[in-house]
Write a structure and sequence with these properties.
This protein is mostly helical and 411 residues long. The chain has one domain: Up-down Bundle (Growth Hormone, Chain: A), CATH 1.20.1250.20. The protein is 80% helix and 0% strand. α2 runs antiparallel to α18 and α14 crosses α17.
Length: 411
Amino acid sequence: MWVPSLYFAQAIPYVVVMSLSVVMYKDMGVSNADIAFYTSLLYLPWVIKPLWSPVVDMFGTKRRWTVLLQLAVAAALVAVGLSLHLPNFFVASLAVMWLMAFSSATHDISADGFYMLGLRQQQQAAFVGVRSTFYRLATLAGQGPLVVLAGYLATQLGDVNQAWSIVFFVLAALFFAAFLWHGLVLPRPDSDHKVRGSSNPLRDFFVTFALFFRKRDIWLILGFILTFRLGEAQLLKLVAPFLKDPLVEGGLGLTTEQYGIAYGTIGIAFLTMGGLAGGYLISRLGLKRCLWLMVFAVHLPDLVFVYLSQAQPTSFAVVCASLAVEQFGYGFGFTAMMLYMIMVCEGEHKTAHYAICTGLMALGMMVPGMWSGDLQEYLGYKNFFIWACLSTIPAFIMAALVKIDPEFGKK
């Protein structure tokens, strides 16, 4: 009852900040370099969320944090919609998204902690595919129907800013409904209580961090998490600009509505199917036996963008099929990273330690993403996508070195 809706809600603000904002700012005429830099900078709350993750452990329950933060995100979505009517909409909307990103990052801490407290270990592994699927369905909603709606409203109203404001009000209503729903249906597990520490909370705070960085093979853990998405981190911020830029500028010339159908609907649907398939395979064979297959599945389909940028096909069907292949591979392979982080965080302070893992993963996305816009403008789309593919090599190296329990992930 609660796992699907919780992870659907967890994805909405992340999709808004990381993906929907890219399409919106492109529609509003912001440059690729500014889009990539400033929307990548919005990753920062997810990078530094480990700094306050022990607070979620020490004060209140994960359930309470989760529900109240959903209300805060709903309010932020309303504020973004209102900010788009201001003359300095870019600065104003970024400021509100910054606050929403902090609320969302804290919500991630509490929701992921609640997931690990509310389910037994075998259930956690079995439900990885489910949580991934509904996270991706939220991504589909955010990048598919809502983008199509924005394109349709912009055409009908003749006002891009008004069209996107309406989209954000729709999102706010959806998130407020999630707040009401989870207030009713989230269980109250006995294990959901604040961590009983000593009389010195500050010491407890630093001890939590120290315990994580004392884990066995910590350098391999850090290397694997930081490099797993190195190529995608650069590619992701330029997908929307590439698909929407005209042919003469090296893009594919899709309209906003076509983008919503091709990448936001068909692409995300195949990404969702890939996530389900990945979760099922791991539950049957275990993470260790699936790792190499999944690393290849994540990275080799990036070559699709090399093809698209070189050939610039005008057939919408070819574009959709290419994106479907790339997204299925990514959804299938990324399941390995999700379960790997759960494996790393087993034990005491699992909520805070999982937040550290996701913060490190966000760091691996933020820094390369910040320079990707300038790099693309310098190299052009053709050479940029070749570079993005070469950037996946460190992930293969770390996959050969990382150590995994042979039985972890099996039912």
